[in-house]
Every structure is written in C-alpha cells, then in structure tokens.
Design goal:
The protein is mostly helical. The protein has one domain. Helix content is 75%, strand content 0%. Helix 1 packs antiparallel against helix 2, helix 1 packs across helix 4 and helix 2 runs antiparallel to helix 3. The longest helix is centred in the first third of the chain and has 40 residues. The two termini are 34 Å apart.
Length: 131
C-alpha cells in the first residue's frame, strides 16, 4: 500500500509539474523522469508476475514426468512438491500485497486519479471556473 501511494503520487506530481510549466527544458526532464519511473515499475512488476506464472507451471512439469515409475518414497516427495507448487509463488511488497501486473495497473489508475485531483484543485485555486 505504501509503495502504491508513493509511486502513484510521485509519477502524478511529476506529470502535473510538467503539464503546468511553461519551460520546455523542465517539460523534457519531467517526461524523461516519468518514462524512467514507468520503466522501473514495469521491470519489477513484470518479472514478479512472470515468477508467479512460472511457479504454477512447476506442478504441471512434475506431473508430466514419469513419476509413476519411481519408488514410493520418490512418488510421495513428488506429490508433496506438486501440492506445494499449486499455490503461486509471489513477490510481495512487505505486508502491503503481491507484486503483479494487476498491482501495476492499480498504480497507474491511482496516478490518473491524483493527476485529475491536482488539475481540479489547481484550476479552482487560480480562479478557473468549472464547466
């Protein structure tokens, strides 16, 4: 949750700063900063999502082996491994939740919400009228 709030707010503030300034060099810096933050977020969340999907495939790979030809001890071990592998392995952000592409999309939705709020507040503060 903390990462969600901080990353969303950081991206939203940078986008808002870039959209409200009149200096092209600051706009370019803001664009590059947002691109780098989004790339960093995508790298972390994409690979965390891949780990989750691949961990589920372990159970299927174990089942496709010739497990029935082994002795009872090995069959039991493979069975335990298959049972454990059916629960997805996931990376978490502390106690705040799993890292996945779904979480990354929630962060981007939060960014949009923050930007909309800032634009609405900024417009009302400086005398812009609502339509």
């Amino acid at each position: 949750m903390l990462e969600f709030i901080l990353l969303s707010a950081q991206i939203a503030l940078i986008v808002f700063e870039g959209s409200t300034t009149q200096f092209l060099d600051i706009v370019a810096i803001c664009i590059m900063h947002v691109i780098l933050l989004l790339a960093q977020m995508l790298l972390f969340y994409w690979h965390a999502d891949e780990i989750r999907h691949e961990s589920v495939a372990i159970s299927e790979a174990l089942y496709e082996t010739d497990w029935y030809e082994y002795n009872t001890s090995i069959k039991r071990t493979i069975h335990i491994m298959m049972a454990r592998a059916q629960r997805p392995l996931s990376l978490t952000v502390g106690p705040f939740g799993d890292m996945s592409l779904t979480t990354a999309l929630k962060i981007l939705k939060g960014v949009y919400t923050y930007i909309t709020f800032l634009q609405h507040s900024y417009g009302n503060k400086f005398g812009a009228k609502d339509k």
